[in-house]
Design brief:
The protein has 428 residues and is of the alpha/beta class. The protein is built from 13 helices and 12 strands. The protein folds into 2 domains: 55-84; 94-423, no CATH class.
């Protein structure tokens, strides 16, 4: 593969072509079994009209439809663009979102798409194959844009957070291949982005396995217990992951969670440098408490911060980590799965995350503001910005910096807010 000629501490998993071909042919993968009967075949329906008003009307409809299709393909595929990378990974509209061509011909990603496999080996091989296929161009673009250390901004879009798993896996694989040339720094998350941040940092191998496992546990709660995931459920999942893998220190030093503090004056609060695993789990979990509920398994409490900072809930606005001189990545994950999640959606959005990340990294300027026909930003928009002078350590500041940096790929227009940076280990 393309990336093999650049071998530097190669630690990426490789799967044999024979194994993948066997799986795509309908063989039994280990450890789970996926058969052709599990593959979803789109239903085909023939729609006929009972009202035909002459041949000229049909001709006009055909011409208008053809023209609309050509204009749409021109706008979203990059035809005519002066940027060769846009032409290479031009997008096509499918199922209400833009799908790039970054992974469409890759066997493992196609296999996961077809079978909705949640076997992490299969998901990881999708990311691995995508990285290996494009690694030369990716590293050239990262070096050309002086991106060596990268912080991640993961906004809150509910259970669309599953796409962050694919994003994390791709970036982690690149880091493992070239640890002296590319490093992941801190993660700033809000709501679903906070959930993904603590699960990503809780994985001792810096893989997306813990994220995928946690999301599948949440999907099981929704499916088997017929209820929503509560703050207590999240705290239990996060604490268990850190305890089993001994990764609290990673969460403590690299994790930032954005919450909305309901203590007057109301403001976004960024909590970091946690005193212990329980406090960290609580801080990341309350970031997703949409309505600020305090009963039925929901909570707005964070140990050591109650009274001074909390009650805390959903609504925090993310922005670059104060004091960091790292480049920053923002990912719009508004794929339409805010309120619920299934096993199949975990699998599909993992591939969405791989796809969107590779597509962005293939852009020469590392900027991919995906838009629909009407100019609205759509899921999959992603970009990297280098640090600016305003990245200062201050007790309070305006989140307008975040809005100005990523205004044309934000999920919504957002608003400016006063914010406070809270060192959780010192506010007791």
């Amino acid at each position: 593969m393309a990336g093999n000629t650049m071998g530097e501490n190669a630690t990426v998993l490789h799967a044999s072509d024979a194994e993948r071909q066997s799986l795509l042919a309908g063989g039994d993968p280990a450890p789970e079994k996926n058969t052709d009967s599990e593959r979803v075949v789109p239903e085909t329906r023939q729609v006929t009209s009972s009202r035909v008003r002459g041949p000229w009307r049909n001709v006009m409809i055909f011409v208008v439809g053809l023209g609309f299709a050509i204009v749409t393909l021109w706008m979203v595929s990059g035809w005519g663009s002066s940027d060769p990378s846009t032409q290479i990974v031009g997008a096509a509209m499918e199922g209400g979102r833009q799908k790039s061509r970054a992974v469409e011909n890759l066997g493992w990603c196609n296999y996961v798409r077809q079978t909705s496999s949640t076997n992490f080996h299969h998901l990881q091989q999708c990311a691995n194959e995508a990285v290996n296929t494009h690694i030369n161009t990716i590293m050239q673009n990262l070096q050309a844009n002086s991106v060596h250390n990268l912080d991640l901004l993961w906004p809150g879009t509910g259970f669309n957070e599953a796409a962050y798993a694919g994003n994390w896996e791709v970036l982690s694989l690149i880091q493992k291949r070239f640890p002296r040339r590319f490093r992941i720094g801190r993660i700033m998350g809000a709501s679903g982005g906070s959930s993904s941040a603590i699960m990503a940092l809780s994985d001792r191998d810096s893989s997306a396995r813990t994220m995928v496992d946690g999301l599948l546990k949440m999907a099981a709660i929704i499916r088997d217990e017929w209820r929503q995931v509560t703050t207590a459920d999240e705290i239990r999942i996060y604490e268990d992951a850190m305890a089993r893998q001994g990764t609290f220190n990673r969460v403590k030093t690299m994790g930032f969670t954005a919450v909305w503090s309901t203590k007057f004056p109301l403001k976004t609060t960024y909590i970091h440098n946690f005193a212990g695993p329980r406090q960290a789990a609580q801080a990341f979990a309350v970031s997703g408490n949409v309505f600020g509920w305090t009963s039925g398994g929901y909570s707005t409490s964070v140990n050591g911060l109650d009274g001074s900072v909390c009650p805390c809930q959903d609504g925090g606005i993310i922005q670059p980590v104060p004091g960091s001189q790292n480049s920053v990545l923002f990912y719009n994950t508004a794929y339409g799965k805010e309120a619920s999640i299934t096993d199949q959606q975990v699998s599909q959005m993992f591939v969405d995350g791989v796809d969107a990340t590779i597509e962005m990294l293939l852009k020469r300027n590392l900027w991919n503001p995906k838009q629909d026909f009407f100019g609205n930003v759509v899921a999959g928009a992603m970009g990297i910005k280098n640090p600016v002078n305003q990245w200062n350590v201050r007790t309070t500041w305006s989140a307008a910096l975040y809005q100005s940096l990523f205004y044309n790929i934000l999920i919504t227009g957002g608003s400016s807010t006063n914010a406070e940076l809270v060192d959780a280990s010192r506010r007791r």
